[in-house]
Amino acid sequence: xxxxxxxxxxxxxxxxxxxxxxxxxxxxxxxxxxxxxxxxxxxxxxxxxxxxxxxxxxxxxxxxxxxxxxxxxxxxxxxxxxxxxxxxxxxxxxxxxxxxxxxxxxxxxxxxxxxxxxxxxxxxxxxxxxxxxxxxxxxxxxxxxxxxxxxxxxxxxxxxxxxxxxxxxxxxxxxxxxxxxxxxxxxxxxxxxxxxxxxxxxxxxxxxxxxxxxxxxxxxxxxxxxxxxxxxxxxxxxxxxxxxxxxxxxxxxxxxxxxxxxxxxxxxxxxxxxxxxxxxxxxxxxxxxxxxxxxxxxxxxxxxxxxxxxxxxxxxxxxxxxxxxxxxxxxxxxxxxxxxxxxxxxxxxxxxxxxxxxxxxxxxxxxxxxxxxxxxxxxxxxxxxxxxxxxxxxxxxxxxxxxxxxxxxxxxxxxxxxxxxxxxxxxxxxxxxxxxxxxx
Amino acid sequence: xxxxxxxxxxxxxxxxxxxxxxxxxxxxxxxxxxxxxxxxxxxxxxxxxxxxxxxxxxxxxxxxxxxxxxxxxxxxxxxxxxxxxxxxxxxxxxxxxxxxxxxxxxxxxxxxxxxxxxxxxxxxxxxxxxxxxxxxxxxxxxxxxxxxxxxxxxxxxxxxxxxxxxxxxxxxxxxxxxxxxxxxxxxxxxxxxxxxxxxxxxxxxxxxxxxxxxxxxxxxxxxxxxxxxxxxxxxxxxxxxxxxxxxxxxxxxxxxxxxxxxxxxxxxxxxxxxxxxxxxxxxxxxxxxxxxxxxxxxxxxxxxxxxxxxxxxxxxxxxxxxxxxxxxxxxxxxxxxxxxxxxxxxxxxxxxxxxxxxxxxxxxxxxxxxxxxxxxxxxxxxxxxxxxxxxxxxxxxxxxxxxxxxxxxxxxxxxxxxxxxxxxxxxxxxxxxxxxxxxx
Amino acid sequence: xxxxxxxxxxxxxxxxxxxxxxxxxxxxxxxxxxxxxxxxxxxxxxxxxxxxxxxxxxxxxxxxxxxxxxxxxxxxxxxxxxxxxxxxxxxxxxxxxxxxxxxxxxxxxxxxxxxxxxxxxxxxxxxxxxxxxxxxxxxxxxxxxxxxxxxxxxxxxxxxxxxxxxxxxxxxxxxxxxxxxxxxxxxxxxxxxxxxxxxxxxxxxxxxxxxxxxxxxxxxxxxxxxxxxxxxxxxxxxxxxxxxxxxxxxxxxxxxxxxxxxxxxxxxxxxxxxxxxxxxxxxxxxxxxxxxxxxxxxxxxxxxxxxxxxxxxxxxxxxxxxxxxxxxxxxxxxxxxxxxxxxxxxxxxxxxxxxxxxxxxxxxxxxxxxxxxxxxxxxxxxxxxxxxxxxxxxxxxxxxxxxxxxxxxxxxxxxxxxxxxxxxxxxxxxxxxxxxxxxx
Amino acid sequence: xxxxxxxxxxxxxxxxxxxxxxxxxxxxxxxxxxxxxxxxxxxxxxxxxxxxxxxxxxxxxxxxxxxxxxxxxxxxxxxxxxxxxxxxxxxxxxxxxxxxxxxxxxxxxxxxxxxxxxxxxxxxxxxxxxxxxxxxxxxxxxxxxxxxxxxxxxxxxxxxxxxxxxxxxxxxxxxxxxxxxxxxxxxxxxxxxxxxxxxxxxxxxxxxxxxxxxxxxxxxxxxxxxxxxxxxxxxxxxxxxxxxxxxxxxxxxxxxxxxxxxxxxxxxxxxxxxxxxxxxxxxxxxxxxxxxxxxxxxxxxxxxxxxxxxxxxxxxxxxxxxxxxxxxxxxxxxxxxxxxxxxxxxxxxxxxxxxxxxxxxxxxxxxxxxxxxxxxxxxxxxxxxxxxxxxxxxxxxxxxxxxxxxxxxxxxxxxxxxxxxxxxxxxxxxxxxxxxxxxx
Lengths: 440, 440, 440, 440
Fold this sequence. Notes:
Four copies of one chain form a homotetramer. The first copy, chain A, is built from 16 helices and ten strands. By secondary structure, the first copy, chain A, is α/β, with parallel strands linked by helices.
């Protein structure tokens, strides 16, 4: 493997960030970035802001911050905008969703948050049944809607003097859609737009609009959206990166840590029962079985890929895996995931692991969104187009090349991400061999 | 890094395995190996027996079993012996400790288990206060005891026509000892033996005897034992590997998986409260505060090394870490570890993870003991002497070179182990970069 | 309240017990009674066998065993029979359901268990969809089936020289049925039988047959069955007691203990999320949404009655209560109930209780079945007919007089049961006032 | 039992409440009462404020509020004062202990809270080692200190025009003291005060001073204090009630609910492991083994009394009960109790219950303190002197007459309390017999 540095354009000027959805996640990102800028809070959870990277050998003691190592946009360079079917500003959204402490983290930056007013959204209740909103684009055909979104992107860029843009989906989960003929190549996709084909949900119009404007697109929800051949084709054609899908924030994060442990230790698995209770808008949307089905797909696949039952039939070929999500309003934006894991060890003896994760949805998701914005922008400046597999670290259902299986193991994902940064900057890959410390 | 294969002697003939202690762990290993030989049970939990290793690129699909890839001794080649201060055979030990189902897993191999009778032990209640036994070597000085152990090893090897031997400590935890002057070099150590110095506990006599007989020594408990300069010096001089210390089997295994997750995601940590309840002989011994202190050291260090508070002061410099072990007879050989983990995320918001691990001590430890025996024997045949850092994967407190810090992260340990096997066999290191799938 | 003793017929002769269903619960009862008779096990969980009752004042120290206080049939007097659509004997049922240790608790009494062969059942898959069986009565109309059951009861009584009989439902949950016109009085009910009305499920035919034969009927499942006016009318007419419904064995038992604690302490409740995983035949049947609906009714009602939101609107009028049951085969007959309870205290501050109950379905249910058989037989001999509210202690959804609300609080139920026994025997009621110890 | 009403003096005028200790509990009570007065919060958790009592038969539907049924002082009549070795006002204490939301529940009543300034305390670090304070009475002998406390009570009563007073211990746990000769009668006790005997800790001086002033004394901590014959003698002589000891607020509350369930159902118990983590001043004090020992006594006794191993040797004579408390600062005033309960059922089969109680120490204790103040004042007006067993409901280690055992079962305690109120007011005792609904 050559270790020469790749060419990367500098991160000069302003980076416009448009969030699709201005709810709990987006308002938590926007408020957080402002608080961090002012030194009122720390960007905990963000690899780009707090993470380091080890370079060279353990004894060299070279461990810079990632943001000092690769040329990322600084958080001072970010400018936020949004679309949402509900007309609340970022201030109103933050107050209503109840994630942040009002007195400590909202009121001090109220003026700034009130500036972020959502543009009218492309929204269709056929795809997200439990929501409704009035701040929507007056109905035209899908082509008109896509063009309107492209115009929004251009207008925002001009109005805020941005040098570059990123679009990120932070909205609710759409109903389950199978990839169909309209998604197989760009020509079919364009035709389907023109025909108002129902296989083109709003999320695809956002992704299409972004890519056509040569703007990277990130998908934080489990919708198909950009995870179809037509979109990958467009991304390569336009020379922009895409990243997705579904932020890996709570129970699945835990799962992609514990399943690798079982496999590392060759401990067998008989069953894994996961139940979630959550009380926010996301929970309400997922109470619709069709939206849940979309989510269930990304949640269930994880174990199969990590555990490789084909390689280990005696350990993993008969796993009973069940995932439940329940809307439970008393929790608000808090989210609780309870897992019961039935494992077996030496000679087949059964044991159990039970995990209760009392987490906060938007607090876990916000730093992922920030990192993805900054890394995707880096990818574009480094000329990396199409699917960014090295960002699998952030996703429940990482997009990947058709020739390979996805990597779900959090630690392989982390190694992949960091070795990609090393490769970009011409540093040696880390293998953890370290035999040299024990040989003459 | 060159990728030429290392020279490794073939694994011909019989491999004698002497366990120090013939209690729950040792009898579970011995019974298990016999059951597996006869096809009556599976070696679940054993990387050497069930694990695979990926070679080359993801698309090559080369994933052999580890035991087909590196030349390990087969389980048919193993012959077991033991020392124990209690005269029970492996059969009686297995029945009493209650780990295995008597009808399914003990009676069918009773004759074989009865053959394993423990040799009289070197035992001193000053170092393990809650135990007593009559099957002990008649008191002489420490030098005489060491020589008697050497003679046991030679006798066993001859009596069972073994080609090679391994000694593994599967006994109770000794009281806490600080490394002292007698441990700093081999000459001082030898002098201390001759002087019956109290800084030389029984476990060091076992390790010394093994190494002097050019037999690898493995330490499954947290005692100092071979983790002192004098022993490393002797290991190099004698050309044998040593591996230790303290099997990483339950709560610490979990900790070295969850802490890396927190660090990977830059989630902060305020406190980690771990409590254990266990009801076997190990629990009884650890109820002695001096034995517990030894254990506490190996259990507490883990977080500091993984979390690197110097690199991440805002996330990990103020962690309140508490570990408790309680003897609780109702559990028998079962062991339950309950962890409450107080973390914080974006802008400092608190969250909690609670883990309840209902495990079985000996069931988790047995495959580790088997793997360590086979890998240590491999190391010796490959000419790797002294500390085997690549076996850190198996230990709570891995021995390491003085020039580097220990690796506690289970996934770094796994990468290190597998890349060491690749290096031994002349295969390429795996880096998970995989950028080639996304470039033209 | 007068304290004169009630007249009770002696418990002479043999008591025949017919279980509807010969699965996990019934076989565990039958095996257990035999083991206890032989001194091979203890009747843990049975109030009639192990319970005591305090009489008079605390200082009198009169605390006899309940079975020495009231004239119950002894377990030596019991003779078991059963109906089941599957032809397995009690021996085969016990082996298959995996509740009891085969070597310790099944094989020693195998001959006895094999004697219990199920009579052909009245079974209809329209009412229990996930089961099927061949050991069923050849189809006739509902009247013929009812008559066949009556004949079975008479035949069994004669064949085994029984003096008295009891019929107890230990079978699967039928689909949800609303009480309808056919259930309102006995005449309508008889007409519906003759008309093969679908509102008469098999369980009602069993109850009808028992009552017509002047045999008490107990319902361990949540089916409507005897909980309709027509059946209560028949019970009074025939002079027999009825008791039901749905054994209170696991999560609901816990709920009827914790909810009274909240109310006793005036702690508020915002939400209660209960999830169950279980892997036996019961779990499989409840995976059918229509059977689950029947169960859900008995599980949900509990909180409302205990917490009295009308009396305490500020504490309990806005409770989000959700109950989930999931079929999860890895658990077998074990059953795990996880509850998350969101409470609030002083000034409204939130707190949480989480309970994980790792229980065994049939082990919990078996002693309830035994107690109910013996107490119902006692009731009949004491001339108590119709609904036995004092047995509410045993049920998730206790039948009760139309004029009063049901009591769900376990401790009120226990007081009611014990004070009823005191009343039957002419002893004073216990009030726990005890002011006399503190006054001159 | 006669049902004539007892004579009770009216609750006219102001009731002075002096808390010993002005920390988390006391400041939470004082702030709460003020907020409730102003309609800014609800007295959740308080039986006197929110509880009802059922009178007569179920069908009568007579269920008044307790405060409408018995003549209690109203919260508008309360005036608070305190002693504390730290000079913080109730405002400063509330801010520092972090129990209440500052903006919602502290600032709006800041002026009122600042009025409560602690009087100098009688404090001696020999009895509470982990605390220190400067706001203490200048050292005199124990007699002088007791007289100073009496003077404080008289002064406060006069200064605030109180008609009646109550003193309640809300301070830290003193070290463990065995009852000795000095505690056996009042004469010996008086002599020990005069002799500065070390068997008289500060808490006894407070109790002594209160009783001498004919003021009821309540003990919220596990110290011996008023739980000795000398104090009971004094209480009777002075004609005042005493109530104690140790608020039953968290894990023990749960234990006195779950253990009665086990006994009600005749489920056996093998072991109960309780661990607590808490981060407030109380946790810090209990980190001293001598203070913990005092607490441990009140926590351990509970099971024995409830389970009656003498009556049920097969179920409860071999219980392994362990209680651990760990100071764990990340929790602050939150307190988490984790219980693992090993039970066994039918034929001896093992099952487990695990409970995790995420509670808040002062939020649970505050309403108990309020209720005890009001009920103790009622007791005095009703002429009930000495130990108030009917208030056992509130205590971990309820004081009781020497002739009887204490009642720990929460539901017996509740019945006792409510039947005592009924007896006071001349209403019939409730027995839950209810046989009348089922007889003609």
